[in-house]
User: Fold this.
Amino acid sequence: MDTSDIRKGLKLTMDGNPYVVVDFQFVKPGKGQAFTRLKIKNLINGNTLERTLKSGEKIEPADVEEREATFSWDEGDQLVFVDVNSEQIYVDKVKVGDDARWIADGQKVDIVFFNGNAINISLPAHVVLQITSSEPGIKGDTASGATKPATLSTGATINVPLFVKENEWVKIDTRDGSYIERVNR
Assistant:
């Protein structure tokens, strides 16, 4: 592939590592050769880089595959998922990072493979989890935007509005860890 094939979401290999294009800009200066400015995210460690490629420069597509799988159990240093073929997939917790706090039993995720090895997971944008502990709200405290901490079934702690109680189910944005709404289950 060359620079004219670049688009957001394209997965490519640079310096032996898989990256995904987060943003790009084609620049055609008044003098000199046109170039493409890239903002890319490393799929293994999550670091973001900026690179500049000359127009017509060749790029290598990444040997990346995504497969849907369901979380089954936690095995110390690894999380174990089962895909549609009942194959067990082990993913190191270090690779998952903070996202592990949103994974509950039966949670569906996309597992990212590079050269046949599981390197990361992609969570859905929202998850529904149960609140296991939370202090009761103070009666009469209706201050706009007032929140309290609540612990979820996965062990994560988030801020929720005062009216949310223990054992209720809530929808959470996995990108920033914020409360969205109560959910009936």
User: Anything to note?
Assistant: The two ends are 48 Å apart (CA to CA). The domain at 126-183 is CATH 2.40.50.140 (OB fold (Dihydrolipoamide Acetyltransferase, E2P)).
